[in-house]
Amino acid sequence: MEIFGIPLQAFLGQLMLGLVNGAFYAMLSLGLAVIFGLLDIVNFAHGALYMVGAFFAWIMLDRWGVNYWAALVVAPLLVGMLGVVIERLFLKRLYGLDPLYGLLLTFGLSLVLEGIFRDQYGVSGQSYPVPELLSGATNLGFMVLPNYRAWVIFASLVVCLGTWFLIERTRLGAYLRAGTENSKLVQAFGVNVPLMVMLTYGGGAALAALAGVLAAPVIQVAPLMGSNIIIVVFAVVVIGGMGSILGSVITGLGLGVIEGLTRVFYPEASNVVVFVIMAIVLVLRPAGLFGKEA
Predict the structure, then answer these.
(1) SS3 category, 126
(2) Within 13 Å and on the Cβ side, how many CA atoms surround 89?
(3) CA distance 289 to 253
(4) Cβ of 65: how many Cβ atoms within 10 Å?
(5) Considering Cα of 159, then 227, then 177, then 191, what sign does the dihedral take?
(6) CB 237 within 8 A of CB 29
(7) Cα–Cα distance between 43 and 32 in angstroms, integer?
(8) What's the gap between Cα 111 and its chain centre?
(9) Which of 12, 67, 116, 231 has the most neighbouring CB atoms within 10 Å?
């Protein structure tokens, strides 16, 4: 059986690859959207934090034998604490200023982090094994589905929807949103806004690290893995709408699928299709598909 002249198995394989890439786009753009939407910071260090999360998982396995499942918890916690340090030492001094200052600062931090890991481990990638529980594949009849890739999609959806629910449907999320709109008024009601801001950035950093741990068995763990994906993720956030959490999740998954299918029908355009869509969206709807017009 063929679809537009493409064998069904090849078509579904690319569709699955697109969903996996879309899951990473969704998780990374989710963290960016949370940080921008609540703190008004364009966090260019997000790709570096994604890389650090993957490297922490690899280092813990290589040196101390910490398995994948423990790394899924420990690496995001460590990178989240790194995010807290970054927010307390640097970013808190930029609140209220033009977002360009935050972008330049986080861009500089990303270069520092990449430089540290390049100096220690070089530019070649490190392999991270697929956990034994998720090894192999499942034959669905019409295609063979790698178990780990199915896990990545499932885990990403759970994390993304859980984060959206926390921010949009809980009292804590209401405090976070209110604190960014009028911090003095919220503090007058006894809410510790600086603590919430610090934890928000730490949480966004932890989301990037979690995506890095999930990506480690799929791609080579390398110092430049974050810079290779962050530009696409920024495009995803712009298309979905800056600060729109649900928009970033839906757009990330959708664009991953579109990118995967483009590799089937017109491979030469697969590297630019996301940016072409971004240009069209910016012309027709500058606030993004799910963003609110000013």
Answers:
(1) strand
(2) 9
(3) 14
(4) 8
(5) positive
(6) yes
(7) 6
(8) 18
(9) 12
Each residue of 78-132: pLDDT tens digit?
999 999 999 999 998 888 788 889 999 999 999 999 999 999 998 888 999 999 9
Q: 50 — phi, psi (to 5°)?
A: -60, -45
Condensed to tens digits (0 to 9), the pLDDT of residues 215-268 reads 999 989 999 999 889 999 999 999 998 878 888 899 999 999 999 888 888 888
The residue count of the chain comes to: 294
| Residue 221 main-chain phi, psi, to 5 deg | -80, 115
DSSP state, residue 234: H
**If you search the block for the tokens 């994604």, which residue do you land on?**
50
* d(C-alpha 138, C-alpha 147), whole Å: 6
CB atoms within 10 A of CB 72: 17
Q: What sign results for the dihedral spanned by CA atoms 129, 134, 137, 143?
A: negative
What CATH number does the domain located at 2-126+147-284 have? 1.10.3470
Residue 141 has a CB neighbour count (10 Å cut-off) of: 5
d(CA 67, CA 80): 19
DSSP string for 18-30: HHHHHHHHHHHHH
Q: Any residues with CB less than 8 A from the CB of 211 and at least 6 apart, and which?
A: 24, 27, 28, 31, 50, 53, 156
Question: Phi, psi at residue 210, to the nearest 5°?
Answer: -60, -40
With tokens 């059986």, the residue in question is: 1
List strand residue ranges (DSSP E) for the chain, in order. 2-3, 6-7, 137-139, 144-146
Spatial distance between the Cα atoms of 220 and 123, rounded to a whole number of angstroms: 11
| Burial tier of 183 (Cβ tally within 10 Å: 0-12, 13-18, 19+) | middle
